[in-house]
Amino acid sequence: MFYNPLAITTSSLGLHPSHSLPDKIRAAASASISAIEIVYQELEDYALSQTPPVSVHDAARTISHLCLSANLSVLSLSPFKNFEGHSSPLEERLDRARNWLEIAACLKAKYLQVPSQFDTGNSSGDWTRMVGDLQALSNLAALYSVGIAYEAVAWGTYIDTWEESLRMVQDVNRENFGLCLDSFHVAARVWGDNTVESGIREDADLALRKSLDRFVETCALDKIFYVQLSDGEKFVPSLGPGHCFYQEEFPPALSWSRNMRPFPLEEELGAYFPVAVIAHAWLNRKGWKGVVSIEIFDWRMRDESRRPSDNVKRAVESMRKLTFVLESTTY
Fold first, then answer.
1. Which residue numbers delimit the Xylose isomerase-like TIM barrel domain (predicted)?
2. How many domains does the chain have?
3. How many CB atoms lie under 10 A from the CB of residue 268?
4. Helices 90-107 & 40-49, crossing angle to 10 degrees?
């Protein structure tokens, strides 16, 4: 059994248009899962699928009631992208945020998940400005009783490590602004490389160990809102022109993230990230007792036949294996 409260993202339960939000909620409720993270696009798709179509706000209320009846809480609405330091007027961005926060409130979501800025052509790396933008966002979110879970993505333009995201959390200095930590982004940033044949960076194990040691020593538990776990599938061949997931305008880690993130320890599907090492540092060494969420983007789930009920079984088996490894291995 997995000892932390367990959540799962809707993306982890299917990626085909026929894999509906209600089906995913029912699948999550059938397992030992206490919360769900809802992807905005899926909520919008659900609203448009109704006859007649309904507003996203009304869809959020319906989904909230469905989750409640299934004994699931809504952990987050995601992903609210490219906010801090963007070149567009702050008031316009806050108007967009207000809409998302209204929907989060309709869902009774605890958090709005905000990945670090990666719009290179339309943003500034001015730290003071980014801090001010995120303070304004946090102040607005507080009016809706919603927290901001800030996540350093591996392809972030200015913030791509947990250290920089922690620095941002400390400088924003708002009670409702904290960290979302994701094992994929940590591993893809300091350990893995999908553009080389080995799939691993030079001195990868040493770099990861030092990063995790720094985390255990310096990251206060009260700055963490929740953590996410996924693995990374090895690219064979490595990512480059001609690969089916290669897009010239995409950073390699973004192509990786959107296509080849299986459940933890699914080695039979090419998973090879040191996710158990990361989980050991976060859960055992640091002692994180809060929510652990599973966030998967697996190309196989675009197959209609891989139903949410099948995918949740993969999640349960993955957590069973991870629990066994964490209990039986000393790192």
1. 25-321
2. 1
3. 7
4. 70
